[in-house]
Amino acid sequence: MANSNQSAFQFELQQLKKFAAEIQKQKEGLEAVPPYRGEDLAEQALEASRERSRRNLDVSEKEPYFGRLDFRESGDEEPVPLYIGKAGVSESESGHAMIMDWRAPAASLFYSYSGGEEEAWYMAPEGMVEGEIYLKRNVAVRNGTLQRVVDTYSKGSSQSGAADEFLLYRLGEKKDNRLKDIVSTIQAEQNEMIRAPRDTALIIQGAAGSGKTTVALHRLAYLIYEYRENMLAEHMIIFAPNTMFLDYISNVLPELGVGHIKQTTFAEWAAARLGGVLTFKPRNWEKWFVPGPFRSAQETDAPWKLKGSISFMQAIEEALIHYTEDLLPSADFSPWQGKVLKNETIRNWFNDEFTGYAPVKKKELTAEKIKRWIKTELDKEWDKKARQDNKKSAAQKLRAYLKTWRSLEEADVYAEMLKVSEVRAVLTDEVADAALAMLKKREADHEDLAPLVHIRIVLNGLQRGERFHHIVIDEAQDFSPYEMAVLQKLALKNSFTILGDLAQGIYAGIRSWEEIFPIFKEGRYEYKILSKSYRSTMEIIEFANSILLSAFVPPAPAVPVFRSGEPAEAVHVPASEKEPYILKWVEKERSKKTESLAIICRTESDAEKLWTGLKSQIGSLSLVRDGQRGYSGGVTIIPVYLAKGLEFDAVLIVDADAENYQLNQADAKLLYVGCTRALHTLAAVYSGTPSPLLKKEEGKGK
Ligand SMILES: Nc1ncnc2c1ncn2[C@@H]1O[C@H](COP(=O)(O)OP(=O)(O)OP(=O)(O)O)[C@@H](O)[C@H]1O
């Protein structure tokens, strides 16, 4: 076996040399062509294509491929080796594909084929292609050097089945401060989601570390490749929970050769869309996450739940119909003494003639029509002076008349909606009045953003090109159904990837995916589950799962891949020993060449206090605060809610005591989020009484 491994390595070494020489030749060929900067459109298109090739070749030079698949198509005599890489490369002389792009139809087999005697097939544009696989090989190349060759399937060989070995090798690597692409180890269930048809909203419930974010980013790269004619990066958008998370994921798309996809948070996007009509009060997260009675109220019918509901949206939609049908005053319009345009006529124009247009446009068109009527009436006047006087009067009167129409400004309309009894019935008078009081001061809360954007869309309609070709909503459990429904109005062909984990729902979001199914029409969404967790070791996942079980948090717990590490433990440390313990822990982890360490606190003020005490004792210790745009890796102190979505080689949860993490679902989710950030090492320390959410058997540090 050792020999066959060696010969495979030697063979791939020779292959790599051949590929590298061809890539080098093509690079030199392209470099010899001076970049075109002129005005000729055909030349510009050629230059753009050359630029793409240059970029692809740069990627291919360092890592030309990561896999090889020997496939014999039914009817052919011999299998053909297909090398699969991040970018496709064709032979310059023959034009034949030399390296296949991982997104190409045939490359799908590399991810979906799990060995055995099963039939191998893939869908090509011309239809189904069947055949047989002879070899599936992982080939790790770093910076042009061959590092590892692992056969995960070889026809007729007992050696097959090493698929997990390569995955485990990858998962065991240390991580810095950025998420990475996973093209070489995409798993079959992830592959299915990445390649799901574009016209269906894909809703994924995925356990912590199951690769949701990663799958979403790879899906974008796939859609851009597969539907290159009509799905453009510039018309795609990613919604993520905060700006630091956006920074954390910012490397993956460029690594996959994709640029220009807008990445934002819902609040940032909505506020920009509303263009400064109101001042938005950001939610006070410190208050939100401080342990105590305020937290226990979060699961109930708090204002954010009511304002985020679909019933509220439906009540607004209904009330808007009545409001916009009745925009006109009941009086006739008189442009000058003795001349009258009947109210009924104007209503007919508005309601019948311009039906199908959005209210703002309808008002504009009706005003134009009135102007044309005025002109006709003016032309009937022969006396020049009288005509001039009438013209002046008409202009003033029309301006005044249009002001008597009901307002079409979002904030005014929202205020009107909040006075409608059916809307108030959904919200309660107290919540509606509180929102009205804020609007009076030209202020609004975070949860008013969705209704305001909704109202704007209804009033203005959507212009051509305003819809997104694809929308990704990450950490979707923290979105309200209303926010999601607003985005649904903006997605072309229902093209969505919605990902989240209900067990990590720590903000005021949804509690069950069923809450959002009605947003999508029957048959226009697909619900999938990812339960395997790739991030953490078995010990960490078991430790984290037991927290959820203690508080009966659904859904089903994460299933770890078979990667074992150090025990994850809860350790009692007297308060006076806390800082020395942390210092020792950091030292120990650093000695393992760990790249990213997180010390996770309950709140931002706890984090700040700890950082102040430790910063002179730990070199390059950083503190993450709310609103921060990025984090630099190394040793970080971070409040638990800001750690969501991120990952670290080693995690230390501090103050994991009964007061900070109480026996309720909200606290269990928070602690679960903290623990599942760890890849390789996890410990939770407490002074006094341990959190009842922690596993009963305690660690050694007592
Ligand atoms: N197929 C895979 N091969 C290698 N690594 C993988 C694979 N799938 C996921 N991972 C790794 O697992 C980790 C978790 O991925 P990701 O952050 O996308 O998960 P998530 O489900 O969004 O997590 P969470 O909800 O906990 O934030 C990342 O380090 C990612 O690279």
TrEMBL record:
Superkingdom in the source lineage: Bacteria
Residues in UvrD-like helicase ATP-binding domain copies: 185-537
InterPro entries to which the protein is assigned, alphabetical: DNA_helicase_UvrD/REP (IPR000212), P-loop_NTPase (IPR027417), UvrD-like_ATP-bd (IPR014016), UvrD-like_helicase_C (IPR027785)
Gene3D superfamilies linked to this entry: P-loop containing nucleotide triphosphate hydrolases (3.40.50.300)
Biological process per Gene Ontology, one example term: recombinational repair
Residue span of region Disordered: 29-55
Keywords per UniProt: ATP-binding, Helicase, Hydrolase, Nucleotide-binding
PROSITE patterns: UVRD_HELICASE_ATP_BIND
Positions that bind ATP: 206-213
Protein name: AAA family ATPase
